[in-house]
Amino acid sequence: MQIAIDGPASAGKSTIAKLVATKLGYVYCDTGAMYRTVTLMALRAGIDVHDADAITARLPELRIDFRPTADGQQVLMNGDDVSLAIRQEDVTNNASAVSAIPAVRADLTQRQRDIAAAGNIVMDGRDIGTTVLPDAELKVFMVASVEERARRRFLDNQAKGIDVPVEVLEQEIAARDHKDSTRATSPLKQADDAVRIDTTHMSIDEVVTEILLLHDDRE
Ligand code: C5P
Question: Which segments are annotated as binding site for ATP?
Fold first, then answer.
C-alpha cells in the first residue's frame, strides 16, 4: 500500500505522515528533506542555486540516506547527519529554486520510486500523488491557512531556538507556495483522486485518525 501526502509548506504533512507510518508500521519517506539536501549541497559548495548545470553535475556523487532513530529519522548527506542543517532558513528559502530544476526533479523522483518499491510506504511532498506515485492507493492533499501555517512554524522555530517574526514567516510561506505552484515541472497541485483535508482547525490526532480511516477503507 502506498500513501501519498501532498500539500503546501508547513501544512503539517511530515508530522502527520510520520505518525501514520508509525501506526501502520510503514516506511516514511520525507521527499522535502531530499530537495533540502540537494539545496544544502549547493549552498555548501558555493554553487548558485539557479545554476542547473552545476547542481546537476554533482548529483551522481550525492548520497542521501534516511537513518531511523528512537524519535524519528536522521537525514544523511554522504554519510554526514544534516538533519538540523537542512531545516535552517537559508536552505528553506532556497529549496524552491533548486526543486524547480527539471534534472533535479527527475533524479530525486527516481530515488523516491526506488524507496517506494521496497514495500508499504507513506511519502510526503508536493508531487507524490501527481508524479512520483500516481497509482498510490490513498492520496491526501493537506492544506491550512497561511496564518495558521506561519503560527505552527513559529512555534517549531522557537523550540529549535530560531527567531523569525511570524509576519516574516507568513511572507516566506506565501512566496514558497507561489514558487512551488507555478514552476513548470511537477508543480504543487492536488491530484484529481486526492482527498483534501483542511487542517486549519484540526488537531494532529484528528488528522491522523481521518487518514487511518481512509486507509482502512481502501484495504
Ligand atoms: O516539505 P518541505 O517544506 O521540507 O520541502 C522543501 C521544498 O522542497 C519545498 O518548498 C519544495 O520546493 C520542494 N519539494 C518539492 N517536491 C517535493 C517535496 C519538496 O518540490 N516532493
Answer: 7-15
Using CA atoms, how far apart are residues 91 and 68, in angstroms rounded to an integer? Answer: 22
Instruction: Indicate which atom in ligand 1 lies nearest the CA of residue 9.
Output: 3
Second CATH level (architecture) for the domain 28-119: 3-Layer(aba) Sandwich (3.40)
For ligand 1, whether the C-beta of 99 sits within 6 Å is: yes
CA distances from 189 to 100, 131, 157 (A): 14, 10, 27
* d(CA 216, ligand 1 centre) in Å: 28
Complex confidence, ipTM: 0.98
Q: How confident is the model at residue 13 (pLDDT cuts 50, 70, 90)?
A: very high
Say if pTM beats, i.e. exceeds, 0.90.
yes
Q: Which CATH number fits domain 1-26+121-216: 3.20.20.70, 3.30.1370.100, 3.40.50.300, 3.30.70.360?
A: 3.40.50.300
